[in-house]
Amino acid sequence: MDNLFFKNIEKKTGVNMNEILQLASSLQNANFKDEKTVREVVRRVSQIANRPIKKELEDKIVKTIVNDGRKLDFNTISKMMNEKK
C-alpha cells in the first residue's frame, strides 16, 4: 500500500501502522475460542491504541469474543473499548 496513506493514518490516529500490520498478521491463525489468546490480543490492541482498559472491561470483551463468537479484529475491540459500561 501507499506509504503516504499509512503516514496520514499515523498522523491522525497516533497509531503506528507497522504495529497494526504485525497484529493483523498474528491474528490470521489465532484461536479465538481460547481465552488466553483473546486476552493477549485485547491487551495488545489496548497498548497499540494507547487506551488502557480496566480489568472489568477486558473481561467483558474477552467473554464476548470467546463465548458469543463475535468477530475479532482491531475495529471490533476498539468499538468495545469506547462503549459505555
Walk me through what this model shows.
With 85 residues, the chain is mostly helical. It has one domain (3-82). The protein is built from five helices and no strands. Helix 3 (35-48) packs across helix 4 (55-68). The longest helix is centred in the middle third of the chain and has 14 residues, at 35-48.
Q: Quick gist of this model?
A:
The protein has helices at about 5-15, 15-25, 35-50, 55-70, 75-80. It is an all-alpha fold. The chain has one domain (about 5-80).
Task: Indicate the topology.
Blueprint: H1 3-13, H2 17-27, H3 35-48, H4 55-68, H5 74-82
Helix pairs in contact: 2-3, 3-4
How would you describe this structure in keywords?
mainly alpha, 0% strand, 69% helix, 85 residues
The helix fraction, in percent, is 55-70%
Distance between the termini: 37 Å
Order of helices and strands: HHHHH
Main sheet, how many strands, which sense, barrel?
none
For the secondary structure, the number of strands is 0
InterPro entries: SpoVIF (IPR025942)
Organism: Caldibacillus debilis GB1
Pfam families: SpoVIF (PF14069)
Protein name: Stage VI sporulation protein F
